[in-house]
Each structure stands twice: as structure tokens, then as C-alpha cells.
Design brief:
Length: 298
């Protein structure tokens, strides 16, 4: 057996966001948000559909949205590239989801809580050792909770999860292992086959159940992700070296600042042949106009 990579947009939505995924998503969210407790009794997947054809960098992240039985909205995102200001984007999407619940004339009492679950294929919080992080609103001096604490950010950093298959104990660990390692497995592990929802996720992820067109599309998406990861890593490495050299030559604070800006421009120049202008601006933090000027100069 071979399984599709859950970290790609098509596969993630097919496994967790399609019409037959309700029980799978319920088990997944109970595991990652509520530590395996059966808190979610029922949910509704909002707009259950598959992503459009591959278009560019924006398709390397993906979303599934669900409404829980108590009205709580959950947005799920799998991010493979560590792009500029990604943390701000997570907060923006959660706040937007919270605010956009209200229609004209509706009161604030109609608002329901929002949970943003984000899985990253990179370390987002290097100073933290644990692979799951949860953020809510607290008072700064004594850490008391804000009375209307209705936006929660939950992060799962896949690179920090180091357990092997024979070390998995909890359902939370098994779901994270599925996301991280399903692509490399050749059969459903015995210690995961006993969980009906995980078994069903493996069945949906089995390449034997996909059409030739679906498999070709998945291969293109995986290659796109690997190409972007390689391009960004190479661009950043070369750009940092050029920026450091520029800063050393100046030797002053202004020089160090110019060095940082030159580093961004150098990274951008190395990505011009690989990505479009919007993607380069998102990764480097340069303005779109600055990237366009660099392309014209090249």
C-alpha cells in the first residue's frame, strides 16, 4: 500500500474536509485540541470540497472549516513554508472568522468562539520544546483569563514530534504521526488500525482508491512544495551571506540595517526565477513594488 501525503492541500482536504470525513475530523480535533477527550459530539464541515488546480504559492497552505455542536468555529491550516509574518496571518484569519459571523443588525451576543488549529512543517516557536502550543487571552500581570476568551490559537509543530511508530501511546500522538509520516508507510500500522477513524483516514489516503488524474495532480503538488522549500532555503542562504558581507563593509549601525535590507533583496533576487512577485514579497517582507523593481533591474 502507498498513501498520499496529508501535508499537501489536496490530500489534507480529501482526508479531513470531504463529505465522508465527519467522523475522521471529529476524532482528529478531539485529539489535537482536547487531548483525546470526546468533547466534540458532532460537527458540520463547512463547504466540503477539494482545492482548485495548482496555481502558485498560495496553494501550499490549506484550510478546513467546521462548526462544532456548541457553535464553536474551527479553522484548520497546514502550512509547509515558513513565510514572512505567518504568525500575523494566523491571528488575522482567526479574528476575521470571529468578526465575520455577524450579519447586519445582529448583536455581539450572537458571536461564537473560534479555534484556529495550525499545523506547521517547520519550527514556529524555536524556544519551546513541546510540539503543541495553545494561546489565549490573559491579563498581563496575574495571568487571569479574559472574561470573553473566545479566540484560541493552537499550533502543532511537526518537526518537534520525534516519536517512532512503536513509541506511540495516545490518540493525539497517533494522529500527529499520521500527518507527518503516512506518506512513508506501506501498510496501516497495527497500533493505529484499531482506531476506526484513523483506519478510515488511511483508506481515503490509499493511492489505490485514487484516479490517475488525482495521482498526477498530487505528484505535481508535492514537487511544487519541495521546489519551493528548496528555492526558499537556497535564496535565504545566499541572501544572508551577501547581506552579511554588505554589513561588514559598512561597519556601522546604518550599515547593519542596510545589510539586513540587502539580505532581503539578495534573497528576492535568488527567487526571481523560481517564484512570482507576490510569493517573493510574502517570503522576504519586501513590498510588492520593491520586488517588481528588482525584476525590472534583472
Amino acid at each position: 500500500m502507498r498513501f498520499i501525503n496529508p501535508k499537501t492541500d489536496y490530500a489534507f482536504k480529501k482526508i479531513f474536509g470531504s463529505e465522508e470525513s465527519q467522523d475522521i475530523l471529529k476524532s482528529f480535533l478531539n485529539a489535537l485540541i482536547y487531548d483525546g477527550e470526546a468533547v466534540i459530539e458532532d460537527l458540520e464541515i463547512i463547504n466540503p470540497n477539494l482545492p482548485p488546480k495548482l496555481q502558485g504559492l498560495k496553494d501550499t497552505y490549506l484550510d478546513v472549516k467546521a462548526r462544532l455542536n456548541d457553535g464553536t468555529l474551527v479553522i484548520i491550516e497546514m502550512q509547509v513554508l515558513n513565510v514572512q509574518s505567518f504568525g500575523k496571518r494566523v491571528l488575522f484569519n482567526a479574528a476575521k472568522t470571529y468578526a465575520f459571523q455577524l450579519q447586519s443588525g445582529e448583536g455581539y451576543r450572537m458571536l461564537k468562539p473560534v479555534i484556529a488549529l495550525t499545523l506547521t512543517d517547520f519550527e514556529m516557536f524555536p524556544s519551546r520544546e513541546h510540539y503543541v502550543s495553545r494561546y489565549i487571552y490573559r491579563e498581563k500581570s496575574d495571568s487571569s483569563l479574559y472574561p470573553e476568551n473566545e479566540i484560541e490559537l493552537v499550533f502543532v509543530e511537526l518537526p518537534k514530534f520525534a516519536k517512532e511508530l512503536n513509541q506511540l501511546e495516545t490518540i493525539t500522538e497517533k494522529w500527529i504521526y499520521f500527518i507527518k509520516s503516512a506518506r512513508s508507510l506501506t501498510e496501516i500500522p497495527d497500533n493505529m488500525d484499531e482506531i476506526p477513524e484513523l483506519n478510515q483516514a488511511f483508506v481515503i489516503a490509499n493511492q489505490a482508491n485514487l484516479t490517475r488524474e488525482e495521482l498526477e495532480d498530487l505528484e505535481r503538488r508535492e514537487m511544487f512544495i519541495y521546489d519551493q522549500q528548496g528555492a526558499v532555503a537556497l535564496g535565504r542562504e545566499e541572501g544572508r551571506e551577501e547581506g552579511r558581507e554588505e554589513g561588514r563593509e559598512e561597519g556601522r549601525e546604518e550599515g547593519r540595517e542596510e545589510g539586513r535590507e540587502e539580505e532581503k533583496r539578495a534573497i528576492a533576487r535568488n527567487l526571481l526565477s523560481r517564484l512570482d512577485d507576490n510569493a517573493i514579497a510574502q517570503i522576504t517582507g519586501l513590498s510588492l513594488e520593491a520586488v517588481q523593481v528588482l525584476r525590472q533591474e534583472e
